[in-house]
Amino acid sequence: MPKQIQGSQFDFSYGEVDVALKRRDDHPARKAGLRQMANSRILNAGGLQNRPGRSALFPVLTATRTEELTMSPGNDFKLVFGAGRLQVFNSSGVQVASFNNQGSGVALPWTALNVNQIVYAVIGLSIYITFGHTMRPQVVSWNGASTWSIADYTELVIGSQKRTPFYRISPQGITLLPSAATGVITVTASDPLFTPAWVGTILRYVNRQILITGYTSALSVTGTVQEALPGSQSIAFATDPRLTFSIGDQVVGATSGSKGIVVGYIPATFTMNVQLLSTSTTSTTTFDRVGYQTITTAFQQLEVVAGPSGSSAISGAAAVGAPLAVAIWDDEVMNAFRGYPASCFVDQFRLGFCDFPSVPGGISWSSINAPTDIYVGVNPNSGMFEIAPAKVRVHYVTSGPESSEIVFCDKKVYYIPINETNPLKPGSVAFKILSSDGVAQVQPRAAQETVLYVNAGGNSVMAVVAPGAYYRPFNVKNLTDFHNHLFHNVVAIAVPTADDTFAERYAYVLNGDGSIVCGKYTTQDGQLAGTIGWGPWSGAGTVKWISAWNADVLFTTQYFGAGICEVLDDSVYLDANLFVNALPAAFAPPLGKGPLWWIQGQTVALMDQGTRYMGTYQIDPDGFIIPQGQGGEDLTRASLAAGQIWTMTSEPFAPDAQSGADAGQRMKKRQYSYFNVYVINSTGFDMAGLFSSQQLPTSPPLGTVMNQRTVPAYNAGEDATLPPTQRETVESYAPVGSTYDPRAAIIKRTPGPLLIAEFASEVTI
Fold first, then answer.
1. pTM
2. 291 shares a domain with 175
């Protein structure tokens, strides 16, 4: 008697797993995984259902990225990015704004191939957009009614002070000598430093700003003082000051509170030259924004001056003189010379920038509720500028679990703790290591209390999770251990944040070749629970971008070269689904054209009455559907839907031998004696035997359909002009052939519902 091996599978929660698991019948991923799971979605109960269709919202022609956002309650808009173009559409799919140029009039720099590098953030009624290192951030604003505008991001200026971050980018050790404390001056460097590109930038000498207006040489530029510079003093002592103070020491006056840097000595007179650092100010203050009228605070005669190595009393102090040459100065971080940030974010009521070309590890936060004030201050609501450790490039910063911020870098992942006792403010930022593996330039997305991101290789989806441990509040988890074959050159992640018509929660990943991977996840107490079951989605169109907002999952897809924006829709069974006799306003045809004017001369699948599939139809050169005259055809029905179809494939692993007496059953050829499937809401499918025999130069590829049985949508005598009966039944098939790796699958090539509840099979040897 042949050895009989029976198996049943009703849990598919692992999705399509690596084929290397096919002999690991002890592994949970093998027990609840499939060899193929194309165009299916996993249900909470563990079953498989044909994936939803996608309803067409509006044409985008050559555009390749669509994002949805909320500008104010009840006012949702979609941003559509194409080559050198940004369009804004309202919730009805009507274009309300279009921009081809930056605020300065320069053309928008992105192309259809790199729109994935655009990063945007929303504060109030303004959208802040960054792209690459050469484009000044742009601000797209809505007036709350009907007017949209675009402008260059410009830092706040109060008085003459530009509220922007500074950092020492230029080589250390070079000193600068201003010719005067105010007005138009000459700035001289101790070593070659300047180029013509410095003109128009600001440098900050001893925390005071100088606008560079002219280039003379590598050692000299002209500039205009924006904030009066502190002067210098010669202060005398009763003994040689070199015994107490060294060049470069910062010294403080006990009475005046003056601060200065020791620059040099006159030994014969026991005199020390000091560049003053401190000023007194009369100011007009709004939060942390100050208009300065600066008055240098000088050291006073007979007061005690203290430094790092000791103190001494002043015996004489000269009047304040011109500034001296010191190395205490820094550079403007973002401008046309140093470049602009390539990434932005919003958190804690602050606008943030990162991925600065001049300071790759730098992160800038604006003052609270003041997105153009990014000057570093000391008050709790001040702007901040911090540097991530380990010489990394910060790609993204995002709000993470428990209000902390997650910092995604090319070589590391950090978190910045933020809580009630440690709010985000100057002096509070600390970088805590999460992972020593870097990330790809794919914008992370939040899934409840989890943040999904892509590893540096672009082929694994990772997650930052909060396990609740006191000493390690966050962990990093790989979500694709058994699914790496599905991911390659990932370009986008989309995670809806609200329930749609189904209760399941999914994450969507777009690969560089346009293929989609859908992952079913569950949560418990806000955290990921168990594993994510991933499966590939495909179709007739080429998906260029995927995004999510609330419950909407948006696809920017090209069909026959024409781009449209689609939304995932569980009520339809076609992609690019359009009800041709009740078109959305955005698809209204031009004069004399038909409803499918945007894919004229192509083909389309038709359905009517919800689930009745009519077949494939031709479209004439004007966009009208060409009738076929088949029974029940009515091209005027309000329910007539046109779109594109896909193929659902579900292939379980053949059951392996159970424990028992050794009969060589794991190493002998095997054959399905029966292959059964329990289906619900079935509208027809095929049961197929797949090629898995010895591979020869002339043999077909593995997985080729060799024989099949069709389960029809209609039984004999049923009216095919009506929607098919959605059946709950068990169907059986016995694929022909014996092999070491018998393969059988369910294939649904026609649109309509299908739910697979269980596979049951028997294999003989």
1. 0.91
2. yes
